[in-house]
UniProtKB/TrEMBL annotation, chains A, B:
Localization of this protein: Cytoplasm
Domain of life (superkingdom): Bacteria
Molecular function GO terms recorded: hydrolase activity
Keywords: Cytoplasm, Endonuclease, Exonuclease, Hydrolase, Metal-binding, Nuclease, RNA-binding, rRNA processing, Zinc
Family: Belongs to the metallo-beta-lactamase superfamily. RNA-metabolizing metallo-beta-lactamase-like family. Bacterial RNase J subfamily.
NCBIfam families: MG423
Domain Metallo-beta-lactamase residues, every copy: 19-216
Principal localisation: cytoplasm
Described function: An RNase that has 5'-3' exonuclease and possibly endonuclease activity. Involved in maturation of rRNA and in some organisms also mRNA maturation and/or decay.
HAMAP family, A to Z: RNase_J_bact (MF_01491)
RNA-binding is among the record's keywords: yes
Name listed for the protein in its UniProt record: Ribonuclease J
EC number(s) on file: 3.1.-.-
Amino acid sequence: MNKNNKLSIIPLGGLGEIGKNMTVFRYGDDMIILDAGLAFPEEDMLGIDLVIPDMSYISENKDKVRAVVLTHGHEDHIGSLFYLLRQVSVPVYGSKLTLGLVEGRLKEYDVAAPNLIPVAPGDSLTLGPFKVGFIRVNHSISDALGIYLKTPVGTVVHTGDFKIDQTPVDGKMIDIHKFAEMGNQGVLVLLSDSTNAERPGYTKSERTVTEALDEHFRSAKGRIILTTFASNVSRLQQAIQAACAYGRKVALLGRSMVTVVNKAVELGYMEIPEGTLIGAEEIGRYPDNQMLILTTGSQGEPMAALSRLAAKNHRSLQLTPGDTVLISANPIPGNERSVGRIIDSLMRLGVHVVYERASGIHASGHASQEELKLILNLVHPKFFIPVHGEHRMLRQHGKLANQTGVPKENVFIGENGHVFEFTAETGRFAGKVTAGKIFVDGLGVGDVGNIVIRDRRQLSQDGVLIVVVTLDKNRGCILDGPDIVSRGFVYVRDSEALIDEARNIVKNVLERFENQPITEWAPLKNGIREALVKYLFAKTGRRPMILPIIMDL
Amino acid sequence: MNKNNKLSIIPLGGLGEIGKNMTVFRYGDDMIILDAGLAFPEEDMLGIDLVIPDMSYISENKDKVRAVVLTHGHEDHIGSLFYLLRQVSVPVYGSKLTLGLVEGRLKEYDVAAPNLIPVAPGDSLTLGPFKVGFIRVNHSISDALGIYLKTPVGTVVHTGDFKIDQTPVDGKMIDIHKFAEMGNQGVLVLLSDSTNAERPGYTKSERTVTEALDEHFRSAKGRIILTTFASNVSRLQQAIQAACAYGRKVALLGRSMVTVVNKAVELGYMEIPEGTLIGAEEIGRYPDNQMLILTTGSQGEPMAALSRLAAKNHRSLQLTPGDTVLISANPIPGNERSVGRIIDSLMRLGVHVVYERASGIHASGHASQEELKLILNLVHPKFFIPVHGEHRMLRQHGKLANQTGVPKENVFIGENGHVFEFTAETGRFAGKVTAGKIFVDGLGVGDVGNIVIRDRRQLSQDGVLIVVVTLDKNRGCILDGPDIVSRGFVYVRDSEALIDEARNIVKNVLERFENQPITEWAPLKNGIREALVKYLFAKTGRRPMILPIIMDL
């Protein structure tokens, strides 16, 4: 091994954002990729379905990639794997549940079945110059892993998404001994989850949710409808246990709820007593106080089951007064308004809705400040890179690291594409590689860029107005038209006078070009556009996109 | 006065929503309108500038309207006044600052100068069968009023937007004695602000902000940039006092900041010592530690001064490391992400940003649960209508009323347009009048409805594709085209093959109609549309709006 080789850590996603996590570890000519996530589009990314990391750096170095390692099965960690596997064909390591969820998604994508290799906490394996080991962590999905990476220059620890649950529901606590052991042996770099770095104190144990749920199950008189993230297997397990304790059957609503529960049961991450689970179509056969319905839509997603229930257009279930809806999740920032609207709609149906933070029926899956400091102290790394968070969260996490003794100059607040380079002694920012957002829209990956989005934005604001005219190109005179078609601009039936006048304006412009052969179209089109923009803005205060189309004979 | 007359209370806005507050009080043939606010569009109201209440009920009864009464100068209470005054020409009553803000806005609208009549707390006046009195309340704008309305069937109290600030900065506490006196005399109906009905405890006094601000002013080494709602006159006054105490000049950025401060100074609601205020262009002349800059944009509004500062494109100021930005406002639900992005951008500039709730530099302007209960207990009304809140907040406020002794059947959780009818003894839901949202888009009021919005939504998702062809209408053959123009669908330069094939598909459809006179266009256009939808979806997974336009000769 070349003594001059350095370890590079290159986040391609997840820094300065919550979402599309992906990190490259490179030593010489060997690379490992940790996680391959997606992000959901922001409100100004009109029409975009998903956002994935720009993987140019990986495709430029595809012969160096040894493996993909997944920490857990959430979309922001596995959702771009299928796009990544189009670039590189390498083994994929992850826990059993993670790989189960990956498998469930594979059929949606046109990608060859990858080589999926299950690992368990405590396992380790050698990948080129790296020895990769897996550490159990607690998170809002079962079977989540942190990793350590022994490299020729030193050890790297990456927490993955985690919290420290001292009383986990499944009894499987985060392996704090392993973090301590790593710290004792000496850690060069720690990368740690910053999602809740702004939140003081400790994150509540999942077990506190058990008690809160129990209370609501005890007092509910009608059906109970519980919504949470479909991937939150522990939460679903708790709800099912409560259902059994109070003699309720369980039905599942929503495609991802069905998929995840089946997969979790199949892999042994969830236990549902025989006869408990019924089909959605059987709900009507049981008395209201013997039903628990688990449903998707806790984030107010408009097409999810809970939205349909609130809007009274779900095909297999109608809510009625007496039903109780438990919203066992907090709205992700940006979703408050849509969740609020759903709660309001449910209440208008007379349904009892339990949703406040204070109700205790939700606990976050990410560590708060005291837990973050504990990990920092256990691992006491020489260098620290806060990951998995928006910029201000990374900064706050950086401050926590300073407080626990990591010197300021050893904390790297990065951006996607930054290269952090380490020797056994030193760490430094060593330039940038290509990184960014690739938009997935329908089947297109990366074909929608800023120009298309800018057009969509203009169309969304004031619509479009199309002017078509057929001209005699030799004499410049009008043969047919101008015809005007508009969409999203004004309600056409109420705007005849406006459109008639617009037509006259176009005619006036065309008159200027009459009686001469037309050699270029641009002056004519620009003339039409300018005259219409001016007229329409004066009359309506709006600026529709104006598209003049000239046919000629 | 007719013994059979009843009092009707008809909310036209503000129920089931935060925004566009407007309530009609009617007794026989006399009506008073309380507040005339606007709402900002929700994210799915594409291209809409403002939302105002449907005022059909008012225009159908315009001869009955005696007056408009305004509680305070926030947009959600005065922003649709200008549209209302196009319907009815009646006196407008409000406090001095409220009317000052109304006057400042009048010139933006094409409406005759209304008859603005200033009132002060303690005043009362007779308007037909109503005696209207004004009560001082605390809120996040100065000069806010609650009202009482003595009617032939009993007294109504409406709190307006309020909190109970026991230590207000201007020394002018809410007149709780008046609320107590009303309660003693007997109140038929109370209407009260539900904004914070879900929040336990008490809302902090504005004075607590003084201490927090002082600490940041004491420790700041460079310029201080403070952002809050421009209308929060007390907050701005506090910031200016802190500036004076620490020897800083004050500059204003943002149009509404300049307008409100000038108006507040002119009317005596704000005092700025001589020589303190400087022009934005003079900022550079003073050392950094002698500057306070007050700016708009606390809600992340993309065109406001703070967004421009964060994006480094403000024309009169460039932020530098060492500057401190104090965000003295909480994001309104729905704005968290845009505010978060601005904080991140500021931090990337090296600016110190103070923004957490915990920082103490903001206090809400609305009463929390303990204050709401206190008002309920002081007024102890026979009937209660929670107002100014989304449905779940109204419900929660209703529960608080039950807790303070208002029977369940006397609490009315309403919707906009509901008519609540009262005699001296009874209260009941008495049907509905027209109510709803009217969209303002540019100069158009109400001309954009669901069809236009639906088109904008489709355009925003996948863009538009226009097919134009000139046909010989007698022989059905193509004279020119088909030409295809698309916007917001694909990046055209990369999609030549797709568009070429689309053109062929159109030609194939047209062939079916060849060699015969064309008598109707619909089958031809539908044929084109169907063929293209199918092809484009198969190729791209997208569904652009397809507009076939046929010219004929």
